[in-house]
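Aim 2 progress update. The chain analyzed this quarter is reproduced below.
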Amino acid sequence: MFTRRVRTVGGVSSTDCARGARSLALGTRRRGIRARGCAVVAVVLLASCGGSGGGGSESSGTSGGCGTARRFDPASFVDPTLSTNPYHPLEPGLQWVRGGTTEVGQRVVPHEVITTMTDVVRVIDGVPTIAMLDESTDSGEVSQVGMDYLALDTEGNVWILGGYTEDYEGGEYTNTDSAWLGSADGAEVGVLSPRKVTLRTPSWCISSAPDEAASVGAPVKVGARTCVAFGCFDDVRIVQEGEVGAPDNENKYYAPGVGVINNIPLDASLHQDRFSLLNLVELSPAGLAEASQTVLDLEAHARETSPDVYGSVPFSVRAS
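Predicted structure tokens:
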């Protein structure tokens, strides 16, 4: 197994990025708490009817090429900070630092992703979700900042019910890459990380946002042993994730108690983001507050850039 190195820090590194007083830290995206004194108002839960990857009931079928369909029932969701899925912890204040390379133009450059579980809560389609912040830098310069809203069902499956992502160049906002919330406008919500996976688990739908190809996950290997800079891990789950039919899918390595520790593109000729876990930290209350404020600032900007999605929805709140 491994020894988790955890340090307490006073806050997250931040970079001032134009657009008013918003302070955004490092950025990246696409896709990865038992809150100390934080109680999320967990009113609802969602029963997962999905394939065996959901840790329970059989699938009800498939939907739009998005892998195994799971019936969405808001009554079967719980407080996400219960964090009952060891392969995708949801504890507010946990922060993952992952590093590797990416390609900018024709150049391979250093790439870093900082992922933080905040304590920002939003109810989507009647389900309580918690915001996970992703901040990416290429060659030390902010390139992308975004958030995913994650939910937890009674079987321990982690769902993704919405998100928002901005691109940056030279420290300046350039465009909104993605903006969606729940099943509005034809979006399909799904499971980001099932609690239980075997090699017989059918592919599962991760999400299908409007005007985007559906994303799916499928098991490649379970029970693996994998070593990265942060340490060595047993019982690692290797999952192929990506858009349906796309050539640029990737294998993600999930370790119990930690989450994603490695990301390897399947096609070496297409230099996508490559990264592995460098550190896992537990933020101080001040650090958590800063990361959560970044999410709230990002949501405020989303009201300007994507008013059709975020313009009229209620404001998120901090659970603490």
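Helices lie at 285-305, 307-310. The radius of gyration is 18 Å. These observations will guide the mutagenesis experiments scheduled for the next reporting period.
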